Amino acid sequence: MWKKKLLTPLASLLRRRTLTHFSTPQFQSRPNLQKLRPLFPLPGISFISSQSNPAQCWNCCAAAAATTPFLLCSSCRCIQPVDHSVDYFQIFGLERKYDSVEEHLEGKYKDWQKKLHPDLVHSKSEKEREYAAEQSARVIDAYHTLSKPLARAIYILKLEGVHIDEEETLTDLDLLSEIMEIREAVEEAPDAQALNQIQSQMQEKLKQWCNNFAKAFESHNFEEAVKAIRCMTYYERVNEEIVKRQ
Question: Of 242, 199, 92, 203, which is closest to residue 155 (Cα–Cα)?
Fold first, then answer.
């Protein structure tokens, strides 16, 4: 049975199970969007409200630079308290866009950690050590969010005001049926080779929907962007199930 499923195009998979036992991705979108509920829980991502930028360094009173995030004072090199008005893209000096993020992220992340990691400021005052721990944790969170295509998509839409709503439900039965058939194929896969074949299909699906999201976001078509995130979530969860079985 599993061989037939693996050779059958995913879009034409048979609908053989009821849909009542599945939850679906949850998003709050614009009024004309379909109602959604998650098939799988969405990844835990924290989004932060904004506040005004700090005007000056707490230690030497030097003015904050207007062009760079004020994590570290350029004058006295003291670590500053967390400024929640600085979003994750700004932390790494990146333009707020979906594409071409990962290629620049690793180096910028390592640079910040060399300056902010608590182990490197053990001789500093207690106040600065606390600031270092908070800043380092936020940089880590920012890195993990922006380095993952699905988490980055959810975050960048959040910055645009498109929020998750757990009360909305999904009515896309074709997608649900497709996912159920894929999960059935995963459960019935007899060996690692079969699982790898399914995983390869999932990765292609994820790549396709990441590209769809990028185009939708670039054109400010948030309705299509939410649809792309919904599909990315399903395929990502299937991929996680495969990894657990390998």
Answer: 92
CATH class of 2-43+162-245: mainly alpha
The whole-angstrom separation of Cα 13 and Cα 4 is 10
| Long-range contacts of 232-237, Cβ-Cβ distance < 8 Å, separation of 24 or more | 232/149, 232/150, 232/153, 232/206, 233/25, 233/38, 233/39, 233/40, 233/42, 233/150, 234/25, 234/39, 234/40, 234/175, 234/179, 235/202, 235/205, 235/206, 235/209, 236/150, 236/206, 237/39, 237/40
CB contact at 8 A, 34 and 223: no
Strand partners of residue 72: 79
Round to whole Å and give the CA distance between 50 and 224: 27
Least confident of 43-52, 122-131, 148-157, 225-234: 43-52
The pLDDT of residue 3 is above 60: no
Q: Which residue type does 79 have?
A: I
Amino acid at 162: V
pTM: 0.73
Q: How many other CB atoms sit within 10 Å of the CB of residue 196?
A: 13
Describe the crossing of helices 102-116 and 126-147 by its angle, rounded to 10 degrees.
170
- Return mean pLDDT, the chain: 77
Could you tell me the residue ranges of all domains in the chain?
Answer: 2-43+162-245
